[in-house]
Amino acid sequence: MSAKKETLGKTVGVVVAVCLVCSIIVSGAAVGLRSLQQNNAALDKQSNIIEAAGLTEKAAGDIAGTFEKYVEERFVDLESGEYVEVPEGYDMYKAAKDPEYAVKVEGSNVGFQQRASVASVYIVKDDAGAVSRIILPVHGSGLWDLMYGLLAVDADGNTIRELVYYQQKETPGLGGEVQNPSWKAKWNGKKLYENGEVAIQVKKGENANNEYAVDALSGATLTSNGVQNTLSYWVGENGYGPYLKNQTWKS
Ligand SMILES: Cc1cc2nc3c(=O)[nH]c(=O)nc-3n(C[C@H](O)[C@H](O)[C@H](O)COP(=O)(O)O)c2cc1C
Question: N or C end of the chain, less CB within 10 A?
C-alpha cells in the first residue's frame, strides 16, 4: 500500500515538475520572441505601405530603409482634415475603441460602428522631396469579415494609384481576388471625385471602363460591394474627404 502511495506521489511530482519546466520554457520563449514578433509586424506593415507607395522595386528588399527615406506618417483629424499630434504609439484601429477618440459611424453600410476621430496617413516623397503619393488606410466589411487595405492617391488627391488589401478573409478565387495583381492593376489612374462628389464605382459590365469605374470581381459581387462601400465611406465627408479636399499635405 505504502509502495503504491510512494509511486503515485512520485508520478504526480514528476508531472508537476515537467509542467513547471515546460511552462517556464514556453513563457520564456514568448517573452524572448516578443520583440522579434513586434519587429516582424512592423516590417510587414511597412512592406504593405511600400507596395502602395509604388516603391517595392526601388526598395529591393530594404523595406525599413526605404520607408525611413521616402515615407512619413502623419495623423489627421478627420472632421477638420487638419494634421494633429497624437500620443506615441497611437493606433487608429485601437483608438476606435478608446472613449477619447471613438466616433460613432451612423447610417453607413461599411460594417463597423465606431472609428477613431484621428486617422493615420502616409506621405510619400520623391528624391527631390516633392509629395508623390498619399496613402490612406481604409477598412470595411467584405462577405465574411472586415477587409483592411491601403488606398494610394496622387498628390492631386484624386487620382488613384493603388488599392492594396493586406488583410481579408474572403474566399480564395472569389472575393480573395481583391489581392489578385490583375484586379489591383485596374485601379491605377481611376479618379475618386467628379466635380467634388465621390464618383468612384466598382461595377459590373461594359460601363465599368470609364475613369471613375473599376470592373467588379466576377463571382464575388458581395465582396465588390464591400470594396465600394469601403471607398465611398473613407473618401466621403465622414472619412478622409475633408483632408483630400483641403489638400492638407500642400500646406
Ligand atoms: C462557399 C462560397 C464562398 C463564397 N465566397 C464569396 C466571396 O468571397 N465573395 C463574394 O462576393 N461571394 C462569394 N460567394 C458567392 C456569393 O454567395 C454570391 O453568389 C456572389 O457574391 C454573387 O456574385 P456574382 O453576382 O458575381 O455571381 C461564395 C459562395 C459560396 C457558396
Answer: N
Q: 220 CA distance to ligand 1 centroid (A)?
A: 5
Q: Looking at the CA of residue 144, tell me the nearest atom of ligand 1.
A: 8
Which of 178, 215, 221, 229 has most ligand 1 atoms within 8 Å of its beta carbon, as the pocket-test mutant? 221
Q: What does the domain layout of the chain look like in residue ranges?
A: 49-250
What local confidence, expressed as pLDDT, does residue 206 receive? 66
Per-residue pLDDT of 32-87, as tens digits, reads 888 888 788 888 999 999 999 999 999 998 999 999 999 999 999 999 999 999 99
Q: Which residues line ligand 1 (CB under 6 A)?
A: 143, 170-171, 174-175, 218-223
Q: What is the pLDDT of residues 100-133, one digit of tens each?
A: 999 999 888 999 999 999 999 999 999 999 999 9
- Return mean pLDDT, the chain: 93
pLDDT tens digits for range 133-160: 999 999 999 999 999 999 999 999 999 9
Alpha-carbon distances of 187 from 126, 151, 193, rounded to whole Å: 21, 10, 14
